[in-house]
Amino acid sequence: MVQNGQITLKDVPSAGKRTACRLATPFRDTARVLRMTRYMVGWASTGVQMGAFENTLKYAQERLQFGKPIASFRWCRILLAKMLANVTACQCLMVRLAQMDDEGKLADHHASLAKAFCTAKSRETVAWGRELLGGNGIVADYNVARFFADAEALYSYEGTYQMQNLILGKAITGLGAFRVSQGRASGCSQSPASAGSPAYFQTGDANMAPATATLTPSPAVVPTASPTAALTLANVLYEKKGAIAYVTVNRPKVLNAPEYADVERFADRVRDARDDTAIRGVILTGAGNKAFHRRCRHRRARACRGVLKPSSPAVSGRRYST
Question: Which residues are paired to 247 by β-bridges?
Answer without folding.
Answer: 238, 284
